[in-house]
Every structure is written in structure tokens, then in C-alpha cells.
Description:
MetI-like fold; mainly alpha
Amino acid sequence: MKKRPVIAVFVFAALLVPALFASCSGISGSDVNWFMGVVYQLSNGMWASLLLFGCTILFSMPLGLLVCFARRSRFKVIELITKFYISIMRGTPLMLQLLVVYFAPYYIFKISLSSEYRTYAAIIGFALNYAAYFAEIYRSGIEAVPKGHHEAAKVLGYSKSQTFIKIVFPQMVRHTLPPVTNEIITLVKDTSLAFAIAYIDMFKIAKELSAQQSNIMPLFVAGLFYYIFNFVVSFVMGKIEKRAKRYE
């Protein structure tokens, strides 16, 4: 576990130090040491931000597909419940949802929770929120598939599951890649909202360092991390979109 901050510092510094100091003159060794100290402290929060981002993607995307199926259910009750869930998730602030997930077990069920629950609450809150957004994106992608494709699959003797897996799903993926990319980019920035439940991510550490040192540099460094992270996400998703277009 001790190697992780060291690796993070090396990568982080390699990306950020040139951007901050290349055009500056008169930088002393103590300034560089101070900056590296800030990067080292932020590196622990960086792993927490990456963990929250990765877990949210891992759980929200498949959950969004299940919500999408429920949203398109033939049973009116299931459809209405799903619509209500989506409207709540999309119509209320994510920060409020995190507070509800974190405090509800204690205030409603009188369950005492350990400090480790803070991480689980952040992941649950983000996953539930983004699943609602992904569900609507998936639904639009499914409905964008021409009805003629469904009819052709029926003529060929495909079952409903075969039609979805072989015909609908691949087209849905191509149609939804751009909006999914936008949501993933938004997620990178939204991870900073976890500070509302005292989740120790990079933004929270940067905020505390800035307050302690009366210096805006830690926030600036954190901002650069989010920018670089988003740049990498955009680059990777752009490659995936180009690859998907080859099969259109």
C-alpha cells in the first residue's frame, strides 16, 4: 500500500510540474520541495477519487440497463415506479442524495455505522444517481433502432433475447456512446461532491491544505488533475467512438 502514493507522486509530478514551473523563473529549491509535498499529500486523495470513479462506472452502467428495462416494462406499476425513481435521481441535487444515503441508516433505522461506511455511501449514492441518467440514455438508444430491424429479426426466427443481443444492443451502444462519454466526463468532476459526507478524496484534501496554508495552489493542482483525467477519458472514449463507427 505504501508504494501507491509513491507511484502516484511520480506520475502526478511528471504531468503537473512542467505545466506549473516551465514558464516560471526564480523558483527556489524550497518552492519545488513545497510543491512536491502538496502533490504527495494530494496523491492519497487521488486514489480515493479514482476508486469512486471506477466503482461508480462499474455499478451504474449495468444498473442503468436494468432500470432501462424496468422503464420499458409492460407492467404499468413497474414502469411508474421506475419513472418516479428516475425523476427523483435527476430532479434533486446529487449532494443531497449523498447526504440521504449516508445519514438515513442512522436517523431512520437507528443503525450505528463505522467510518468505513462513508466510502460505501459515496459509491451507492453515485451509482444510484448515474444509473438513472444511463437508463434514459440507453432507452433513447434502444428506441433509435428502426422497427424494421425488429421485424427482420422476427422473420429470421430470432427470440426476443437474441434480437436484443445480436441486433438491438450493438446499435444501442453506437448510438449512446457520445452521451455516455459526456456523463463519464461529468462524473470525473462530480466526484468532488463526495466531500459533502467527508469522503477524503483529492478535492477535500486540497480544500483543507488551501485553508491551512492560505494558498490557492493546492486547489489549482487538484484542478489540473481533474483536467488531465478528463482529457484522458475524452481521448479513450473518442478512440472507442471511432472504432464503433467502422461498423456503421
